[in-house]
Amino acid sequence: MDTRPYDGGPSRRHRRSLGLAAIGVVVAMTAAACGSSKNNGSANGTTSSTAASSGGVKLAQSGGPGEGPYPWKYPASGTVTVGSGTTISGTSCSSGAPQFDSPYAAPCISKWSGNNGGATYNGVTGTTITLGRRMFPSTANGQQTAAVAASQGLALPQVTDQVRQVFLNYFNKVYDLYGRQVVIQPYQASGNYTAELLNGGQAQACADADKEANQMHAFADSGLVDDSFEGGGTGVFSQCAAQDKMVEFLGGGYFDESWYQQYNPYVWDTVQECERIATMQAEVFGTLVAGQKAVYAGDASLKTQTRKFGTYVPNLPEYLHCTDIFKTDMTGKYHVPQSAISTVFTYGLDISTFQQSAQQAIVQFKAAGVTTIITACDNFSLALLTKAAATQNYHPEWLLIGTAGDDTDTAAQTYDQSEVAGHLFGQSEAAPQNTYFGPNSPAGKLYQKLTGHQIPAGTDGNYGALVWIFDALQAAGPNLTPQTLAEGVHALPKLGAPDYVYGGWSWNTGPTGQPGSGDHTAIIDDRFVYWDANATSPVNGKKGTYVAVFNGQRYSLGNWPSSLPPLFTAAGSTGT
User: DSSP alpha helices (H): ranges in 263-316?
Assistant: First the structure.
Protein backbone atom coordinates (compact mmCIF):
# COMPACT_ATOMS: atom_id res chain seq x y z
CA MET A 1 0.00 0.00 0.00
CA ASP A 2 1.35 3.34 -0.87
CA THR A 3 1.16 4.75 2.63
CA ARG A 4 3.40 7.69 1.99
CA PRO A 5 2.83 10.59 4.34
CA TYR A 6 5.22 13.44 4.61
CA ASP A 7 6.97 15.37 7.20
CA GLY A 8 5.82 16.80 10.39
CA GLY A 9 5.59 20.10 9.64
CA PRO A 10 2.62 15.43 5.06
CA SER A 11 -2.03 14.92 -0.57
CA ARG A 12 -0.42 14.71 0.52
CA ARG A 13 0.83 11.77 -2.62
CA HIS A 14 0.77 11.76 -4.34
CA ARG A 15 4.77 10.15 -2.76
CA ARG A 16 8.64 7.76 -2.88
CA SER A 17 9.82 6.08 -0.01
CA LEU A 18 7.19 6.54 2.60
CA GLY A 19 3.90 5.50 3.82
CA LEU A 20 1.08 7.30 2.09
CA ALA A 21 -1.78 4.95 2.69
CA ALA A 22 -2.54 3.52 -0.70
CA ILE A 23 -5.56 5.60 -0.91
CA GLY A 24 -3.72 8.80 -0.64
CA VAL A 25 -1.54 8.20 -3.59
CA VAL A 26 -3.82 6.37 -5.90
CA VAL A 27 -6.26 9.13 -5.22
CA ALA A 28 -4.18 12.08 -4.37
CA MET A 29 -1.46 11.21 -6.68
CA THR A 30 -3.71 10.91 -9.51
CA ALA A 31 -4.08 14.28 -8.13
CA ALA A 32 -1.21 16.66 -8.07
CA ALA A 33 1.11 21.53 -8.57
CA CYS A 34 2.34 25.06 -8.04
CA GLY A 35 1.52 28.77 -8.15
CA SER A 36 1.46 31.80 -5.98
CA SER A 37 -2.08 33.11 -6.01
CA LYS A 38 -5.55 32.17 -4.80
CA ASN A 39 -7.60 29.69 -6.77
CA ASN A 40 -11.13 30.97 -6.86
CA GLY A 41 -12.48 29.41 -9.98
CA SER A 42 -10.08 30.98 -12.44
CA ALA A 43 -6.58 30.09 -13.59
CA ASN A 44 -4.73 32.93 -11.94
CA GLY A 45 -1.28 31.58 -11.20
CA THR A 46 2.10 32.90 -12.14
CA THR A 47 1.49 31.74 -15.70
CA SER A 48 -1.70 32.09 -17.67
CA SER A 49 -3.51 29.45 -19.69
CA THR A 50 -2.17 31.06 -22.85
CA ALA A 51 1.40 31.37 -21.65
CA ALA A 52 2.61 28.26 -23.44
CA SER A 53 3.19 29.98 -26.74
CA SER A 54 5.92 28.93 -29.09
CA GLY A 55 8.35 31.05 -27.08
CA GLY A 56 7.59 29.22 -23.85
CA VAL A 57 7.20 30.62 -20.36
CA LYS A 58 9.85 33.23 -19.53
CA LEU A 59 11.54 32.25 -16.29
CA ALA A 60 13.76 34.55 -14.32
CA GLN A 61 16.43 32.05 -13.34
CA SER A 62 17.76 28.65 -14.22
CA GLY A 63 17.11 25.44 -12.37
CA GLY A 64 19.20 22.33 -11.94
CA PRO A 65 21.90 21.17 -14.36
CA GLY A 66 20.58 19.51 -17.49
CA GLU A 67 17.51 21.71 -17.75
CA GLY A 68 18.88 24.55 -19.91
CA PRO A 69 18.98 26.46 -22.13
CA TYR A 70 16.80 29.23 -20.76
CA PRO A 71 14.14 30.36 -21.01
CA TRP A 72 12.43 27.00 -21.00
CA LYS A 73 10.32 26.32 -24.09
CA TYR A 74 7.17 24.28 -24.78
CA PRO A 75 7.67 21.92 -26.49
CA ALA A 76 11.35 21.82 -25.69
CA SER A 77 12.59 20.44 -29.03
CA GLY A 78 11.67 20.42 -32.67
CA THR A 79 9.59 22.76 -34.80
CA VAL A 80 6.12 22.47 -33.28
CA THR A 81 3.15 24.80 -33.72
CA VAL A 82 1.41 25.59 -30.42
CA GLY A 83 -2.11 26.97 -30.07
CA SER A 84 -3.30 26.80 -33.68
CA GLY A 85 -4.13 24.34 -36.45
CA THR A 86 -5.61 20.88 -35.93
CA THR A 87 -4.43 18.33 -33.37
CA ILE A 88 -3.43 14.76 -34.09
CA SER A 89 -6.93 13.62 -33.09
CA GLY A 90 -8.57 16.05 -35.52
CA THR A 91 -9.82 18.66 -33.06
CA SER A 92 -9.33 22.37 -33.55
CA CYS A 93 -6.36 23.83 -31.68
CA SER A 94 -6.49 27.43 -30.48
CA SER A 95 -4.52 29.55 -28.04
CA GLY A 96 -4.97 28.26 -24.47
CA ALA A 97 -6.89 25.14 -25.53
CA PRO A 98 -5.85 21.75 -24.06
CA GLN A 99 -4.60 18.79 -26.09
CA PHE A 100 -7.82 16.97 -25.20
CA ASP A 101 -10.85 17.89 -23.15
CA SER A 102 -9.22 18.02 -19.73
CA PRO A 103 -8.12 20.96 -17.57
CA TYR A 104 -4.92 19.03 -16.85
CA ALA A 105 -3.93 18.39 -20.45
CA ALA A 106 -0.94 20.27 -21.83
CA PRO A 107 -1.60 23.09 -24.32
CA CYS A 108 -2.63 21.77 -27.72
CA ILE A 109 -0.26 21.54 -30.63
CA SER A 110 -0.90 21.21 -34.34
CA LYS A 111 -0.44 17.69 -35.69
CA TRP A 112 3.27 17.21 -36.03
CA SER A 113 5.00 15.59 -38.98
CA GLY A 114 8.65 15.01 -39.76
CA ASN A 115 11.62 12.96 -38.58
CA ASN A 116 11.44 12.35 -34.82
CA GLY A 117 15.04 11.24 -34.62
CA GLY A 118 14.22 7.60 -33.91
CA ALA A 119 16.13 6.28 -30.92
CA THR A 120 16.76 9.62 -29.20
CA TYR A 121 17.38 7.94 -25.83
CA ASN A 122 17.37 4.57 -24.14
CA GLY A 123 13.84 3.14 -24.24
CA VAL A 124 12.83 5.35 -27.16
CA THR A 125 12.42 4.21 -30.76
CA GLY A 126 10.83 5.87 -33.75
CA THR A 127 7.47 4.34 -32.78
CA THR A 128 7.51 3.52 -29.04
CA ILE A 129 8.35 4.88 -25.58
CA THR A 130 8.79 2.07 -23.06
CA LEU A 131 7.87 2.54 -19.38
CA GLY A 132 8.43 -0.09 -16.70
CA ARG A 133 6.08 -0.97 -13.87
CA ARG A 134 7.35 -2.80 -10.79
CA MET A 135 5.22 -5.66 -9.42
CA PHE A 136 6.34 -6.60 -5.91
CA PRO A 137 6.30 -10.13 -4.47
CA SER A 138 3.41 -10.83 -2.12
CA THR A 139 4.21 -10.16 1.54
CA ALA A 140 2.26 -10.05 4.79
CA ASN A 141 2.59 -6.27 4.83
CA GLY A 142 1.34 -6.03 1.27
CA GLN A 143 -1.65 -8.20 2.05
CA GLN A 144 -2.49 -6.10 5.09
CA THR A 145 -2.29 -2.83 3.22
CA ALA A 146 -4.44 -4.24 0.44
CA ALA A 147 -7.02 -5.21 3.05
CA VAL A 148 -6.98 -1.67 4.47
CA ALA A 149 -7.44 -0.24 0.98
CA ALA A 150 -10.38 -2.57 0.35
CA SER A 151 -11.97 -1.56 3.66
CA GLN A 152 -11.81 2.06 2.53
CA GLY A 153 -13.66 1.31 -0.69
CA LEU A 154 -10.82 1.28 -3.19
CA ALA A 155 -11.36 -0.89 -6.26
CA LEU A 156 -9.32 -4.03 -6.73
CA PRO A 157 -6.06 -3.28 -8.53
CA GLN A 158 -7.17 -5.54 -11.38
CA VAL A 159 -10.17 -3.26 -11.90
CA THR A 160 -7.95 -0.19 -11.93
CA ASP A 161 -5.69 -1.97 -14.44
CA GLN A 162 -8.64 -2.45 -16.80
CA VAL A 163 -9.74 1.19 -16.55
CA ARG A 164 -6.15 2.38 -16.95
CA GLN A 165 -5.79 0.44 -20.19
CA VAL A 166 -8.82 2.21 -21.61
CA PHE A 167 -7.24 5.57 -20.83
CA LEU A 168 -3.79 4.48 -22.06
CA ASN A 169 -5.22 3.48 -25.43
CA TYR A 170 -7.06 6.80 -25.69
CA PHE A 171 -4.13 8.99 -24.66
CA ASN A 172 -1.94 7.27 -27.22
CA LYS A 173 -4.37 8.60 -29.83
CA VAL A 174 -5.06 12.13 -28.60
CA TYR A 175 -1.60 13.17 -27.39
CA ASP A 176 1.00 13.99 -30.01
CA LEU A 177 4.12 12.04 -29.15
CA TYR A 178 5.65 12.75 -32.54
CA GLY A 179 5.05 9.36 -34.11
CA ARG A 180 5.50 7.33 -30.93
CA GLN A 181 3.19 5.55 -28.50
CA VAL A 182 3.62 4.67 -24.82
CA VAL A 183 4.04 1.01 -23.88
CA ILE A 184 3.90 0.07 -20.17
CA GLN A 185 5.71 -3.18 -19.34
CA PRO A 186 5.07 -4.72 -15.91
CA TYR A 187 7.70 -7.03 -14.47
CA GLN A 188 8.32 -8.98 -11.27
CA ALA A 189 10.44 -6.84 -8.99
CA SER A 190 13.14 -8.32 -6.79
CA GLY A 191 12.94 -5.46 -4.30
CA ASN A 192 10.97 -5.42 -1.04
CA TYR A 193 8.60 -2.47 -0.76
CA THR A 194 8.64 -2.29 3.05
CA ALA A 195 12.42 -2.47 3.17
CA GLU A 196 12.65 0.38 0.68
CA LEU A 197 10.23 2.49 2.70
CA LEU A 198 12.65 2.08 5.59
CA ASN A 199 15.52 3.30 3.36
CA GLY A 200 16.84 -0.25 2.98
CA GLY A 201 16.86 -2.80 0.19
CA GLN A 202 19.12 -0.71 -2.02
CA ALA A 203 20.82 -3.63 -3.72
CA GLN A 204 17.54 -5.17 -4.84
CA ALA A 205 16.07 -1.78 -5.81
CA CYS A 206 19.11 -1.00 -7.92
CA ALA A 207 18.89 -4.44 -9.51
CA ASP A 208 15.33 -3.61 -10.52
CA ALA A 209 16.38 -0.23 -11.92
CA ASP A 210 19.21 -1.88 -13.83
CA LYS A 211 16.81 -4.45 -15.23
CA GLU A 212 14.41 -1.76 -16.43
CA ALA A 213 17.08 0.48 -17.91
CA ASN A 214 19.49 -2.04 -19.37
CA GLN A 215 17.49 -5.21 -20.05
CA MET A 216 13.96 -3.93 -20.69
CA HIS A 217 15.38 -0.69 -22.13
CA ALA A 218 12.78 1.50 -20.48
CA PHE A 219 12.92 5.26 -20.87
CA ALA A 220 11.21 5.61 -17.50
CA ASP A 221 9.59 3.81 -14.62
CA SER A 222 5.91 4.68 -14.40
CA GLY A 223 5.77 4.57 -10.59
CA LEU A 224 2.25 3.12 -10.76
CA VAL A 225 1.11 0.97 -7.85
CA ASP A 226 1.00 -2.81 -8.17
CA ASP A 227 -1.64 -5.35 -7.22
CA SER A 228 -0.81 -4.95 -3.51
CA PHE A 229 -1.20 -1.16 -3.64
CA GLU A 230 2.57 -0.73 -3.42
CA GLY A 231 4.07 2.04 -5.57
CA GLY A 232 7.20 1.37 -7.57
CA GLY A 233 8.85 4.77 -7.21
CA THR A 234 10.19 4.57 -3.66
CA GLY A 235 12.96 6.98 -2.71
CA VAL A 236 15.55 4.21 -2.78
CA PHE A 237 14.47 2.99 -6.21
CA SER A 238 14.30 6.54 -7.58
CA GLN A 239 17.93 7.12 -6.63
CA CYS A 240 18.88 3.91 -8.43
CA ALA A 241 16.86 4.94 -11.49
CA ALA A 242 18.65 8.28 -11.61
CA GLN A 243 22.02 6.55 -11.37
CA ASP A 244 20.98 4.51 -14.42
CA LYS A 245 19.88 7.77 -16.08
CA MET A 246 16.29 6.55 -16.24
CA VAL A 247 13.28 8.80 -15.54
CA GLU A 248 10.98 8.06 -12.60
CA PHE A 249 7.60 9.77 -13.08
CA LEU A 250 6.23 9.13 -9.57
CA GLY A 251 9.25 9.04 -7.32
CA GLY A 252 10.21 9.99 -3.77
CA GLY A 253 6.71 10.93 -2.65
CA TYR A 254 6.70 13.97 -0.35
CA PHE A 255 10.49 14.23 -0.30
CA ASP A 256 11.89 17.77 -0.40
CA GLU A 257 12.85 19.72 -3.52
CA SER A 258 16.54 19.71 -2.60
CA TRP A 259 16.37 15.90 -2.78
CA TYR A 260 14.84 16.07 -6.26
CA GLN A 261 17.54 18.50 -7.36
CA GLN A 262 20.17 15.88 -6.52
CA TYR A 263 18.59 13.55 -9.11
CA ASN A 264 17.61 16.15 -11.68
CA PRO A 265 16.36 15.74 -14.39
CA TYR A 266 15.29 12.16 -13.72
CA VAL A 267 12.92 12.07 -10.72
CA TRP A 268 9.46 13.71 -10.61
CA ASP A 269 6.17 13.41 -8.76
CA THR A 270 2.70 14.89 -8.66
CA VAL A 271 2.07 15.32 -4.92
CA GLN A 272 3.66 18.29 -3.18
CA GLU A 273 7.22 17.95 -2.00
CA CYS A 274 7.56 18.39 1.73
CA GLU A 275 9.56 21.62 1.68
CA ARG A 276 6.55 23.36 0.11
CA ILE A 277 4.21 21.55 2.49
CA ALA A 278 6.25 22.58 5.54
CA THR A 279 6.49 26.20 4.42
CA MET A 280 2.76 26.41 3.71
CA GLN A 281 1.92 24.54 6.89
CA ALA A 282 3.87 27.10 8.91
CA GLU A 283 2.07 29.94 7.13
CA VAL A 284 -1.35 28.44 7.80
CA PHE A 285 -0.78 27.19 11.34
CA GLY A 286 1.35 30.17 12.35
CA THR A 287 -1.23 32.66 11.10
CA LEU A 288 -4.56 30.93 11.69
CA VAL A 289 -4.08 28.45 14.54
CA ALA A 290 -1.05 29.03 16.80
CA GLY A 291 -1.18 31.24 19.88
CA GLN A 292 -4.90 30.64 20.38
CA LYS A 293 -6.88 28.48 22.78
CA ALA A 294 -7.48 24.87 21.76
CA VAL A 295 -11.22 25.47 21.57
CA TYR A 296 -11.87 22.41 19.39
CA ALA A 297 -10.28 19.91 21.76
CA GLY A 298 -12.59 17.32 23.30
CA ASP A 299 -11.22 17.57 26.84
CA ALA A 300 -12.49 20.53 28.83
CA SER A 301 -9.08 20.94 30.45
CA LEU A 302 -7.44 21.35 27.03
CA LYS A 303 -9.97 23.82 25.60
CA THR A 304 -8.74 26.62 27.88
CA GLN A 305 -5.05 26.12 27.12
CA THR A 306 -3.04 27.89 24.46
CA ARG A 307 -2.30 25.39 21.71
CA LYS A 308 0.68 23.13 22.21
CA PHE A 309 1.45 21.02 19.16
CA GLY A 310 2.66 17.44 18.93
CA THR A 311 3.77 16.10 15.54
CA TYR A 312 3.48 12.47 14.45
CA VAL A 313 5.84 11.87 11.51
CA PRO A 314 7.78 9.02 9.82
CA ASN A 315 11.41 8.71 10.87
CA LEU A 316 12.93 9.21 7.42
CA PRO A 317 15.64 11.91 7.18
CA GLU A 318 13.86 13.63 4.28
CA TYR A 319 10.68 14.11 6.31
CA LEU A 320 12.53 15.14 9.44
CA HIS A 321 14.37 17.76 7.40
CA CYS A 322 11.02 19.24 6.43
CA THR A 323 9.81 19.02 10.02
CA ASP A 324 12.78 21.22 10.90
CA ILE A 325 11.79 23.68 8.17
CA PHE A 326 8.31 23.89 9.69
CA LYS A 327 9.67 24.47 13.19
CA THR A 328 12.16 27.09 12.01
CA ASP A 329 9.46 29.02 10.15
CA MET A 330 7.05 28.78 13.07
CA THR A 331 9.54 30.28 15.50
CA GLY A 332 11.33 32.66 13.14
CA LYS A 333 8.56 34.00 10.90
CA TYR A 334 5.48 33.55 13.08
CA HIS A 335 7.06 33.93 16.54
CA VAL A 336 5.58 30.75 17.96
CA PRO A 337 7.45 29.68 21.13
CA GLN A 338 9.74 26.68 20.67
CA SER A 339 8.01 25.01 23.61
CA ALA A 340 4.74 25.00 21.66
CA ILE A 341 6.15 22.91 18.79
CA SER A 342 8.95 20.85 20.33
CA THR A 343 7.02 17.60 20.91
CA VAL A 344 7.68 15.23 18.00
CA PHE A 345 7.13 11.47 17.81
CA THR A 346 8.72 9.60 14.91
CA TYR A 347 7.52 6.20 13.70
CA GLY A 348 8.80 3.57 11.27
CA LEU A 349 7.07 2.78 8.00
CA ASP A 350 6.79 -0.94 8.66
CA ILE A 351 3.05 -1.49 8.92
CA SER A 352 3.55 -4.33 11.41
CA THR A 353 4.82 -1.76 13.95
CA PHE A 354 2.16 0.91 13.35
CA GLN A 355 -0.12 -0.02 16.24
CA GLN A 356 2.63 -0.09 18.85
CA SER A 357 4.00 3.25 17.61
CA ALA A 358 0.57 4.86 17.79
CA GLN A 359 0.04 3.69 21.36
CA GLN A 360 3.44 4.96 22.46
CA ALA A 361 2.91 8.32 20.76
CA ILE A 362 -0.41 8.93 22.49
CA VAL A 363 1.12 8.24 25.90
CA GLN A 364 3.89 10.73 25.11
CA PHE A 365 1.56 13.42 23.74
CA LYS A 366 -0.81 13.18 26.69
CA ALA A 367 2.02 13.32 29.22
CA ALA A 368 3.50 16.37 27.47
CA GLY A 369 0.22 18.27 27.64
CA VAL A 370 -0.20 18.41 23.87
CA THR A 371 -3.51 20.05 22.96
CA THR A 372 -3.23 19.61 19.20
CA ILE A 373 -1.78 16.65 17.28
CA ILE A 374 -0.35 17.44 13.84
CA THR A 375 -1.10 14.44 11.63
CA ALA A 376 2.00 14.24 9.42
CA CYS A 377 1.37 10.55 8.82
CA ASP A 378 -0.47 8.04 6.67
CA ASN A 379 -4.19 7.54 7.22
CA PHE A 380 -3.85 3.98 8.53
CA SER A 381 -1.62 5.30 11.30
CA LEU A 382 -4.04 8.15 11.98
CA ALA A 383 -6.85 5.65 12.49
CA LEU A 384 -4.68 3.77 14.99
CA LEU A 385 -3.75 7.03 16.73
CA THR A 386 -7.38 8.02 17.26
CA LYS A 387 -8.23 4.59 18.64
CA ALA A 388 -5.25 4.71 21.01
CA ALA A 389 -6.27 8.19 22.18
CA ALA A 390 -9.81 7.02 22.92
CA THR A 391 -8.41 4.14 24.96
CA GLN A 392 -6.35 6.64 26.97
CA ASN A 393 -9.40 8.92 27.44
CA TYR A 394 -7.43 11.68 25.75
CA HIS A 395 -9.32 13.99 23.38
CA PRO A 396 -7.07 16.61 21.75
CA GLU A 397 -7.54 18.58 18.56
CA TRP A 398 -6.45 16.72 15.42
CA LEU A 399 -4.77 19.03 12.91
CA LEU A 400 -4.43 17.85 9.30
CA ILE A 401 -1.60 18.78 6.98
CA GLY A 402 -3.55 17.20 4.13
CA THR A 403 -1.36 14.41 2.80
CA ALA A 404 -1.38 10.63 2.42
CA GLY A 405 -5.14 10.38 2.10
CA ASP A 406 -5.80 11.60 5.66
CA ASP A 407 -8.17 14.14 4.15
CA THR A 408 -10.43 11.72 2.24
CA ASP A 409 -13.88 10.67 3.43
CA THR A 410 -13.31 6.93 3.16
CA ALA A 411 -10.16 7.18 5.29
CA ALA A 412 -11.63 9.48 7.95
CA GLN A 413 -14.64 7.19 8.33
CA THR A 414 -12.23 4.61 9.78
CA TYR A 415 -11.02 6.96 12.53
CA ASP A 416 -12.46 6.73 16.04
CA GLN A 417 -15.40 9.09 15.67
CA SER A 418 -15.49 9.99 19.36
CA GLU A 419 -12.04 11.48 18.78
CA VAL A 420 -12.53 13.33 15.51
CA ALA A 421 -16.16 14.50 15.57
CA GLY A 422 -15.88 18.22 16.21
CA HIS A 423 -12.10 17.99 16.66
CA LEU A 424 -10.50 17.16 13.26
CA PHE A 425 -9.63 20.03 10.92
CA GLY A 426 -6.83 21.53 8.87
CA GLN A 427 -5.28 21.63 5.40
CA SER A 428 -6.34 19.34 2.57
CA GLU A 429 -4.35 18.74 -0.58
CA ALA A 430 -7.20 16.62 -1.92
CA ALA A 431 -10.32 17.93 -3.57
CA PRO A 432 -13.66 16.47 -2.41
CA GLN A 433 -13.31 12.74 -2.96
CA ASN A 434 -16.44 12.45 -5.11
CA THR A 435 -14.92 14.88 -7.63
CA TYR A 436 -12.10 12.52 -8.65
CA PHE A 437 -13.94 9.24 -8.17
CA GLY A 438 -17.31 8.38 -9.62
CA PRO A 439 -19.31 9.09 -12.76
CA ASN A 440 -19.04 12.89 -12.54
CA SER A 441 -15.27 12.97 -12.14
CA PRO A 442 -13.01 13.78 -15.11
CA ALA A 443 -12.06 10.10 -15.24
CA GLY A 444 -15.68 9.00 -14.93
CA LYS A 445 -16.89 11.24 -17.72
CA LEU A 446 -14.11 10.13 -20.04
CA TYR A 447 -14.64 6.44 -19.25
CA GLN A 448 -18.37 6.81 -20.00
CA LYS A 449 -17.56 8.53 -23.29
CA LEU A 450 -15.09 5.86 -24.37
CA THR A 451 -16.90 2.72 -23.22
CA GLY A 452 -20.55 3.65 -22.77
CA HIS A 453 -20.36 2.33 -19.21
CA GLN A 454 -20.10 3.91 -15.78
CA ILE A 455 -16.61 3.86 -14.31
CA PRO A 456 -16.20 1.21 -11.57
CA ALA A 457 -16.43 2.51 -8.01
CA GLY A 458 -13.28 3.30 -6.06
CA THR A 459 -10.91 4.05 -8.93
CA ASP A 460 -10.00 6.72 -11.44
CA GLY A 461 -7.88 4.31 -13.49
CA ASN A 462 -4.76 6.35 -12.71
CA TYR A 463 -6.22 9.10 -14.89
CA GLY A 464 -4.22 11.86 -13.21
CA ALA A 465 -0.96 9.92 -13.31
CA LEU A 466 -1.36 9.12 -17.00
CA VAL A 467 -2.27 12.70 -17.89
CA TRP A 468 0.89 13.88 -16.13
CA ILE A 469 3.06 11.32 -17.94
CA PHE A 470 1.63 12.15 -21.35
CA ASP A 471 1.83 15.91 -20.67
CA ALA A 472 5.53 15.51 -19.91
CA LEU A 473 6.24 13.40 -22.98
CA GLN A 474 4.45 15.81 -25.31
CA ALA A 475 6.25 18.74 -23.66
CA ALA A 476 9.65 17.22 -24.51
CA GLY A 477 9.11 17.50 -28.24
CA PRO A 478 10.29 14.97 -30.83
CA ASN A 479 13.87 14.82 -29.46
CA LEU A 480 12.83 12.93 -26.33
CA THR A 481 15.47 12.82 -23.58
CA PRO A 482 15.30 13.42 -19.82
CA GLN A 483 16.75 16.88 -20.43
CA THR A 484 14.16 17.95 -23.02
CA LEU A 485 11.42 16.49 -20.85
CA ALA A 486 12.58 18.70 -17.96
CA GLU A 487 12.80 21.80 -20.13
CA GLY A 488 9.31 21.25 -21.53
CA VAL A 489 7.67 20.43 -18.20
CA HIS A 490 9.01 23.61 -16.58
CA ALA A 491 7.51 25.62 -19.44
CA LEU A 492 3.98 24.26 -18.95
CA PRO A 493 1.42 26.80 -17.72
CA LYS A 494 -0.56 26.26 -14.55
CA LEU A 495 -3.07 23.45 -15.12
CA GLY A 496 -6.36 22.37 -13.50
CA ALA A 497 -8.72 25.36 -13.75
CA PRO A 498 -11.46 25.96 -12.93
CA ASP A 499 -12.24 23.11 -10.51
CA TYR A 500 -8.73 21.89 -9.60
CA VAL A 501 -9.97 18.36 -8.97
CA TYR A 502 -6.37 17.16 -8.61
CA GLY A 503 -5.14 20.47 -7.21
CA GLY A 504 -3.37 23.20 -9.13
CA TRP A 505 -0.43 21.87 -11.15
CA SER A 506 2.71 23.86 -11.92
CA TRP A 507 6.40 23.10 -12.24
CA ASN A 508 7.82 26.61 -12.43
CA THR A 509 7.32 28.01 -8.94
CA GLY A 510 9.80 26.90 -6.31
CA PRO A 511 8.96 25.29 -2.97
CA THR A 512 9.00 28.63 -1.15
CA GLY A 513 6.61 30.15 -3.69
CA GLN A 514 9.20 31.99 -5.75
CA PRO A 515 8.14 32.19 -9.42
CA GLY A 516 10.66 31.09 -12.00
CA SER A 517 12.72 28.89 -9.71
CA GLY A 518 11.42 25.55 -10.97
CA ASP A 519 10.10 22.48 -9.19
CA HIS A 520 9.86 18.71 -9.67
CA THR A 521 6.41 18.12 -8.22
CA ALA A 522 3.04 19.28 -9.47
CA ILE A 523 0.55 20.29 -6.75
CA ILE A 524 1.01 23.73 -5.22
CA ASP A 525 -2.14 24.50 -3.22
CA ASP A 526 -4.53 23.32 -0.49
CA ARG A 527 -8.03 23.80 0.92
CA PHE A 528 -8.99 24.17 4.58
CA VAL A 529 -11.53 21.65 5.89
CA TYR A 530 -13.15 20.20 8.97
CA TRP A 531 -14.68 16.77 9.60
CA ASP A 532 -18.46 16.51 9.86
CA ALA A 533 -19.10 13.09 11.37
CA ASN A 534 -22.86 13.46 11.13
CA ALA A 535 -23.24 14.37 7.45
CA THR A 536 -23.60 11.78 4.68
CA SER A 537 -20.62 11.37 2.39
CA PRO A 538 -21.37 11.80 -1.33
CA VAL A 539 -18.67 9.20 -1.98
CA ASN A 540 -20.29 6.13 -0.44
CA GLY A 541 -23.48 7.23 1.31
CA LYS A 542 -21.98 6.55 4.75
CA LYS A 543 -21.79 8.96 7.66
CA GLY A 544 -18.88 11.34 7.70
CA THR A 545 -17.56 13.84 5.16
CA TYR A 546 -15.11 16.73 5.01
CA VAL A 547 -16.56 20.24 4.80
CA ALA A 548 -14.52 23.01 3.18
CA VAL A 549 -14.27 26.52 4.62
CA PHE A 550 -13.42 29.70 2.68
CA ASN A 551 -16.03 28.55 0.11
CA GLY A 552 -13.75 25.71 -0.92
CA GLN A 553 -11.07 27.98 -2.39
CA ARG A 554 -7.57 26.60 -2.80
CA TYR A 555 -4.66 28.72 -1.66
CA SER A 556 -0.96 28.63 -2.48
CA LEU A 557 1.97 30.05 -0.55
CA GLY A 558 1.62 33.68 0.49
CA ASN A 559 -2.07 33.88 -0.31
CA TRP A 560 -3.87 32.42 2.69
CA PRO A 561 -6.47 34.50 4.56
CA SER A 562 -5.37 36.21 7.76
CA SER A 563 -7.99 34.68 10.04
CA LEU A 564 -9.95 31.47 10.39
CA PRO A 565 -13.77 31.52 10.46
CA PRO A 566 -15.66 29.42 13.05
CA LEU A 567 -15.43 25.70 12.33
CA PHE A 568 -17.94 22.88 12.80
CA THR A 569 -20.81 25.19 11.90
CA ALA A 570 -22.77 22.52 10.01
CA ALA A 571 -25.67 21.12 12.04
CA GLY A 572 -24.58 18.13 14.10
CA SER A 573 -20.87 18.47 13.27
CA THR A 574 -19.62 19.58 16.67
CA GLY A 575 -19.42 16.13 18.24
CA THR A 576 -18.93 16.07 22.00
Answer: 274-288, 300-303
Q: Convert the pLDDT of each residue in 240-260 to its tens digit.
A: 999 999 999 999 988 999 999
Dump pLDDT digits (tens) for 209-243: 999 999 999 999 999 988 778 887 999 999 999 99
Instruction: Count other Cβ atoms within 10 Å, centred on residue 119.
Output: 12
CA-CA distances (angstroms) from residue 193 to 16, 159, 189, 379, 560? 10, 22, 9, 18, 37
Characterize 331-351 residue by residue with b for buried, 16 or more Cβ atoms within 10 angstroms of its Cβ, and e for exposed.
beeeebeeebbebbbbbbbeb
Show the beta-strand stretches assigned E in 47-155. Answer: 128-135
Amino acid at 25: V
Q: Which residues, at least 6 apart from 476, have a Cβ–Cβ distance to it below 8 Å?
A: 75, 76, 77, 484, 485, 487, 488
- Euclidean distance between CA atoms 209 and 260, whole angstroms: 17
3-state secondary structure of 349: coil
Q: What is the helix (H) or strand (E) element at residue 420, kind and residue range?
A: helix 417-420
Q: How far is CA 318 from the centre of its chain?
A: 16
pTM above 0.70, yes or no: yes
d(CA 567, CA 570): 8
Which among 378, 373, 281 has a CA at the least distance from the CA of 324? 281
The residues pairing with 400 across neighbouring beta strands, listed in sequence order, are 375, 426
Which domains are assigned to the chain? Answer: 27-273+438-490 (3.40.50.2300), 275-431+526-552 (3.40.50.2300)
